[in-house]
Amino acid sequence: METRLLEYFVTVADELSVTRASERLFVAQSTVSAGLRSLEGELGVALFERTTKSVRLLAAGEVLLPLARALVDDAEELRRAATESGSGLRGRVRIGTFTGMQLLDLPGVLGRFRREHPLVDIQLVSSPVGSTGLADDLGHGRLDLAFLAVPAPPTLDAWPIATFDFVALVPEGHPLATRAAVSLADLAGEEWVDVLPGYGNRLQLDRALADRGLARHLAAELPDLPSVAPWVAAGFGVAVVPDVIEASGCARLPLTDPPPPWVVSLAVRRGAARRPLLAALAEALRAPA
């Protein structure tokens, strides 16, 4: 059985599109389609239900996908190990990270790593839907390593690197600004500023509000966490955020009933840390914590 055919299977299953899979694999659509037919013939089962508009993984495909993915990963690891054994660490690493916020000295850490390993090509990627998108990209092989602020699914290995409590931000002249602490109920009737849906801190806060039966009105939804404080300072609303951002012009207040702490983790696909390059990079990124 050719590893190339298994790679076609895994990539089409990830993308649920022969067109997108062929683009990701840099081969013709007809080649991918023919490869899938060949693999299905060899296995004696249909893996997908394919129409002109959609691709759906069938029951046999669901069962065989984890096995195929493991074989593809092992074959890739064998090739990488053979290459690295003679020339040191080399290859491309795609890292998913947050926009507009540094939880550690990422430029410094990655700069040192590149100087020590000049044959490594590091690419930084962000997601418009925050940790949810990064976790999905990591799980589907579009990233090699990512920072996440959502619980890692079973398909990923993750190591916590930082933890932050949630605090309330209100404009300095707000009636609540002189309080020693506030509750989520105290804030619920205000206008709110928050990040976009899909970000880990937004998911945690939405869950905490729902658990308490509280609703809120969002006046602004922003594309990154550091942007929240300036809008609060300008009087646009209040916010509840991890205590990790600069908040000039805001009163920063403890919460009497905060959501659970915001945990940021470094994650890879399950088992991928066996790859020497990812193991070395993960160690470098975890060391500053």
From TrEMBL:
User: Sorted alphabetically, which CDD domains does this protein's record hold?
Assistant: PBP2_LTTR_substrate (cd05466)
InterPro entries, per the entry: LysR_HTH_N, LysR_subst-bd, WH-like_DNA-bd_sf, WH_DNA-bd_sf
Claim: Transcription regulation is one of the keywords in the record: yes
Q: Where is the HTH lysR-type domain?
A: 1-58
In terms of SUPFAM superfamilies, this protein maps to: Periplasmic binding protein-like II, Winged helix' DNA-binding domain
Which UniProt keywords are listed?
DNA-binding, Transcription, Transcription regulation
Q: Which GO terms describe its cellular component?
A: protein-DNA complex
Return one GO MF term: DNA binding
Keyword Hydrolase attached = no
The similarity annotation says:
Belongs to the LysR transcriptional regulatory family.
The name on file for this protein is DNA-binding transcriptional LysR family regulator
- Its source organism is Herbiconiux flava
